[in-house]
Amino acid sequence: MKKINLQPALVSMDHDEDILYAVIGAFIQEVPALTAQLLEALQNRDQTSAKRVSHTLKGNFRILQLQSQQTCWAKIESLAHEGDFDQITSLLPEAKRVTEEVLSQLQAELDTHES
Hints:
There is one protein chain. The chain has 115 residues and is mainly α. It is built from 5 helices and no strands. It is elongated and about 45 Å long. It starts with 6 loop residues before the first helix and ends with a helix.
């Protein structure tokens, strides 16, 4: 995956780096928990929770203006609305891979900013 570009996110936050890095920190904390909640919803075949969590995951990527990386989560959200748990399960490996790469890059960005 290519390096993520945080410039659009910074622009959307009126060039306020403090806000950007606070959002990055929240993203790093929230996304793994949300992913776990989605897995639990899928195991329980809980469509309501799957819709809510996938929507939140998609939104977290959108806040950071990571449109190309949010595509997997947008597809999963759409499938959650349809209750297509089998198709969601088939998309999860790709969504997890993309998410892990984004988390890794964001953590490196945050570490560099804090040092």
